[in-house]
Design a protein that fits this description.
It is a single chain. 39% of the residues lie in helices and 15% in strands. The chain is α/β, with parallel strands linked by helices. The chain folds into two domains: 139 residues, Aspartate Aminotransferase, domain 1; 238 residues, Type I PLP-dependent aspartate aminotransferase-like (Major domain) (Aspartate Aminotransferase, domain 2). A seven-stranded mixed β-sheet has the order 4-12-11-10-9-5-6, with helices on both faces. A four-stranded antiparallel β-sheet has the order 13-14-17-16, with helices on one face. Strands 1-2 form a two-stranded antiparallel ribbon. Helix 7 links the parallel strand 9 and strand 10. Helix 2 runs antiparallel to helix 10. The longest helix has 29 residues. The radius of gyration is 21 Å and the shape is globular.
Length: 431
């Protein structure tokens, strides 16, 4: 399957104009934000939502007075928008929290009551530790066994021929990442969820790295739980957990006694970041704007979707198509530089199997040294293991500093990638 062409009307200049951070310069040099897998910049709509909330609506929930009533209305609106973003059947399945990792630990703690010592949990070596450590701790606390699903180092794709052998009548949970934060691989989550359910297991999906790049439909996906992070898709530092309502309703919650007894309230312990939810709403409004401006040619992919839900999903489809052109541009450029090794999918016919998160090593240079050289040119990238500890160890790179990671977003341009490639080429030529 060849990569899709970019949306015919996608104008990255209009997108960039909505992000104030992209206009900042340092000593005359524009900033190039290619650290997006670690956290994205925020559009004006998200910044304004947060500022307006803190200035005009700042209050706790449950009061009779104006700001409290307006806070309740805002929180409902943000929850509805998040449900539209994920195509959740109801906003009551949306749980906000501090971050994905904290929410995953909370969920794993709750699931302990459903596990017995003979049960098994499957995790993968392709995942961020935020989708491994909570399940390792759950296994330790409950006496369950952890089983590992490996990946192929040549293309960093999961060994799908192993999954059926790992799934048994003892499997209670499959924890899988939708896209790798280290090497960009998109895993066949829908297929894996079907296999897990056939074996009687639940499925937890870490969609943190997938959510900024493509539409998500939890109903079509077939998962039981899915987590993502708004600060990775142009919002503030927040975490979001989606779960099937019947499961969330049955799970025990560790909460203060006055808190609600039903989802989502029983899982949102203490006072939440209301301004964070306001910013998340603003980020989703930006993505809906992308759909309204550039997503029309993708509308037919989402029959039955209307209004904001349609705009969100067509917008993400437009983003996916545009970002595939960035992936192709960067991979082609890196291949021309002597001593570069790209870790992950590079086949032009398989770009639909990855997000634009591309990691590589450069012969003769440590990832940290490369990152520092790029930083001197105001190009922001990441080096190391990025919490993908198992992935980096499996690739044999743990002792040599990991990899250099370049992660594009829909506000990046081919010209910015060319700046990066020029510095890398000069570095390799000793300039």
């Amino acid at each position: 399957m060849a990569s899709a062409p970019p949306p015919s009307q996608f104008d990255v200049r209009h997108v960039r104009a909505r992000f104030p951070a992209l206009a900042i310069t340092d000593n005359g040099a524009a900033r190039v934000y290619l650290d997006n897998p670690g956290g994205t910049q925020m559009p004006q709509s998200a910044l304004e939502r947060m500022q307006h909330y803190l200035l005009h609506q700042n209050a706790n929930r449950g009061g009779a007075f104006r700001t409290s009533v307006e806070t309740e209305r805002l929180l409902r609106e943000s929850r509805r928008a998040m449900a539209d973003f994920l195509n959740a059947p109801t906003e009551r399945e949306i749980v906000f929290g501090a971050n994905m990792t904290s929410l995953t630990f909370a969920l794993s703690h709750a699931l302990k009551h459903w596990l017995q010592s003979e049960d098994e949990i499957i995790v993968t070596r392709l995942d961020h530790d935020g989708n491994i450590a909570p399940w390792l701790r759950l296994a330790e606390d409950s006496g369950t066994r952890i089983r590992w699903l490996d990946f192929h180092p040549p293309d960093c794709a999961l060994n799908m021929d192993e999954i059926e052998g790992l799934l048994t009548e003892k499997t209670r949970l499959l924890a899988i990442g939708y896209a790798s934060n280290a090497v960009g691989t998109i895993s066949p989550v829908q297929r894996m969820a079907a296999l897990a359910h056939a074996a009687g297991a639940m499925v937890f999906v870490d969609a943190v790295q997938y959510a900024p790049h493509a539409p998500i439909d939890v109903q079509a996906l077939g998962a039981d739980f899915l987590a993502c992070s708004p600060y990775k898709f142009f919002g503030p530092h927040q975490g979001v957990l989606w779960g099937r309502y019947d499961l969330l309703d049955r799970l025990p919650a560790y909460k203060a006694r006055p808190a609600g007894e039903r989802p989502p309230d029983k899982f949102e312990t203490g006072t939440q970041s209301h301004e964070g939810q306001a910013g998340t709403l603003g980020a989703l409004e930006h993505l809906a704007w992308v759909g309204s401006q550039f997503g029309a040619e993708f509308n037919a992919q989402f029959p039955g979707f209307t209004e904001m839900k349609l705009e969100l999903h067509s917008g993400m489809a437009a983003i996916k198509a545009y970002e595939q052109t960035l992936s192709a541009h960067l991979i082609n450029g890196l291949r021309k530089i002597r001593g570069v090794r790209i870790w992950g999918i590079t086949d032009p016919q398989r770009l639909h199997e990855r997000v634009p998160t591309i990691s590589f090593t450069l012969e003769g240079h440590t990832p940290r040294a490369i990152a520092e050289r790029l930083a001197a040119d105001n190009i922001f990238v990441w080096d190391g293991h990025y919490y993908a500890v198992e992935t980096v160890q499996r690739l044999g790179l743990a002792q040599s500093g990991g990899m250099l990671r370049v992660g594009a977003a829909h506000y990046n341009t081919a010209q910015e990638l060319d700046r990066l490639l020029e510095v890398l080429d000069g570095l390799q030529r000793g300039e």
